[in-house]
Every structure is written in C-alpha cells, then in structure tokens.
Amino acid sequence: LEGERDITLGFVDLLRDDFIEKDRSRGIYFTQDWVSLPGVIPVASGGIHVWHMPALTEIFGDDSVLQFGGGTLGHPWGNAPGAVANRVALEACVKARNEGRDLAAEGNVIIREASKWSPELAAACEVWKEIKFEFQAVDTLDS
User: Fold this and answer.
1) Interval 90-121: pLDDT, tens
2) Are 83 and 123 in contact (CB under 8 A)?
3) Opening angle at CA 129, ends 88 and 120, nearest 5
C-alpha cells in the first residue's frame, strides 16, 4: 500500500498470470511466459488494519493472504475481537464490491456503516482512526 498503485497491480498480475506482457508503467520490465509454473498468492502484511480493508479488497480481490498482526493483536478488547473486527470489515467490503460500490471512493463510509452493527469493528476503528495516504510512494518506477 506504500508503493504506487499501478506497480502493485502489475506485481499482483505477475504473481497470478501464466503470461504477462512488458509494461514499464506497471513495473513489468520484460514479457514473461511462466509456461506451466503455478502462480502464487499475493500477500499483504505489515501495519495493515481495518481502515486498509477497502483498498486491500480492491487491489487483491478474493485470492490473497492478508496478514493482520498488530491489526488483530492491538485490538483493545483482545485478539479474538480483533479477528472479528477484521473479518467484519472484510465481509463488508466484499459485499459492497459485489453490489457494485466503489471501494476507493466509499471505503471509509463502508467501514463506518459496518461498525454500527459490530462493536468489535467500532472499537478497532476508534483505535486506528481513519487513514489518509498523504505522502509520496516509497516504491516508484525509475522512468
């Protein structure tokens, strides 16, 4: 989530697809034919919490691993409520996506709506507040 969005999406495709065309704008520097090598599952990890869920759902879709360490263990009520908060946030985002909602534009609203019926999610939302990406990407393409 700290890298440029197009690069992240390019890497996700690189991990999953059998064949990928060169596309420098997405960080793919040469055409790659993986032939019969199986794809791998992309992983998001490191500092993620419930407010990241809309972006994670939009970028990675359903076929990924989301590793919430502190985003689970840091819940004020303990580990199990932290896991519940993450699961509720994920299910709310998947449902919203499947209904055709724009996760990028409505993500924080979707999380706030879900927190009205999940006290675990409401507590997690209070701990981590709403996130804003107000910094330059650390992983950029050298054009």
Assistant:
1) 999 999 999 999 999 999 999 999 999 999 99
2) no
3) 30
